[in-house]
Amino acid sequence: MSSFERFFEEYMVGVCAENPDPSHDILHVYRVVALAKKLARLENAELRVVVPAAYLHDCVYVSKIDPRRSQASRISADRAVDLLTGWSYPSEFLPGIHHAILAHSFSAKVAAETVEAKVVQDADRLDAMGAVGIFRCFAFSGLAKRPLYSAIDPFCQSRTPDDQSNTLDHFFTKLLSLHERLNTVAAKNEGSLRLKTMKEFLQSLQGELTEN
Fold first, then answer.
1. pTM over cut 0.90
2. Which residues form the domain of 178?
3. Distances from the Cα of 21 to the Cα of 16, 63, 111, 141, 170, angstroms
4. Of 23, 59, 116, 139, which residue is the least packed, with the fewest Cβ within 10 Å?
5. How would you class 27 by CB atoms within 10 Å of its CB: exposed for 0-12, middle for 13-18, buried for 19 or more?
6. What are 188-206's pLDDT values in tens digits?
7. Which sign, positive or negative, has the C-alpha torsion 200, 182, 166, 16?
8. Phi-psi region for residue 130, left (φ > 0), alpha (ψ -120 to 50) or beta?
9. What average pLDDT does range 7-25 have in this prediction?
10. What CATH number has the domain bearing residue 20?
11. How far from the centroid of its chain's Cα atoms is residue 54's Cα?
12. Crossing angle of helices 47-56/72-86, nearest 10°?
């Protein structure tokens, strides 16, 4: 895999250099690849599918506010197959790679049907959780120029959360329930730890915001 990984990495460094979103930078790619490799070994998934899919899962940058956002994973999946074909990657793995990239996206709502797709989806979702997930959530908040939280009922105790209006609500619309959408046993074990980190953060934050 090492010779092909250089192609994946070099291409993604270029893509991420043009991407203004710090929550989807090259460090995100590296983390997802590392998580995917770990999960693949634990779940006996095919690394020749998992590794390129993990590297190239966002190989076409589509902003979260772009109207094509729900199609972003399909756009990247199609582009990844074109790239891999040009790099003479073994063709028998291309359908599995395409599906894994297509299914990784939360917004695409495509079910992961193979263990490789489940691994890549889990790796990407785990990177949205825990301390790194908190990091990424507020990094995107700055890019989107959204308020950090609502002055009225910031923890959504009596109102419906709306993460388009402020950042903290994103925990209640998505992040705190991501662990329920993990597929593999290995990911669920890691997800429970990351969920605990997020809950502890919110508990500390609530104490600080209400201490006056």
1. yes
2. 128-212
3. 9, 8, 26, 10, 17
4. 139
5. middle
6. 999 999 999 999 999 999 9
7. positive
8. left
9. 89
10. 1.10.472
11. 10
12. 120
> Looking at this protein, which amino acid is placed at residue 106?
F
Lowest mean pLDDT among 82-86, 100-104, 143-147, 181-185: 143-147
Average pLDDT over the chain, rounded to an integer: 92
| Same domain as 56, residue 5 | yes
In our burial notation (b when 16+ CB lie closer than 10 A, e otherwise), range 115-138 reads: bbbbbbbbbbbbbbbbebbbebbb
Residues 99 and 140 in one domain: no
At 87, give phi and psi (nearest 5°): -90, 5
Cα separation, 13 vs 86, in Å, equals: 18
**Residue 144 or residue 149, greater confidence:** 149
Phi and psi angles of residue 42, each rounded to the nearest 5 degrees, phi first: -70, -30
